Amino acid sequence: MRAGPWRRPWGRWSCWRTGSGWPWWGAANLGHALSPEHLVTRRGAVVRRTVALDRRGVAGWTFTETFFQRRSGLVTVSATTAAGRGHYEVVDVGRSDGLDLAAATVPGLLDPFLVRFPVRFPVHLPVRGCSRR
Predict the structure, then answer these.
(1) Does the predicted TM-score (pTM) go above 0.90?
(2) CA angle at 13 for the pair 10 and 14, rounded to the nearest 5°
(3) Which of 56, 61, 53, 97 is nearest to 79 (CA)?
């Protein structure tokens, strides 16, 4: 009987080493941009996919988050369209950045659903490691 890669120490090491880089490579290739005419999104670790979606073709938005995204404060924003696959995703974007991206892509579409709070200046945040005396 032939031993599989998990029975050999170098096989275990090589499987662990090749599998550990995928999340980093995938995160390094994430991105999005908003031009005057297009929403551009990119994702993928090995096969990179870049989509340039015409802003006039966006019909709606879907916001989803997994358990791990919720813990990290991230969200997946899907632009719904009648063209191509039906929706295109911007993965792992911050919650407020995702809402701002969706609101800026199609002005007026999300206005009835967004509540903006005024920011009061100066904002006093506690500095880590410093104590008040």
Answers:
(1) no
(2) 85
(3) 61
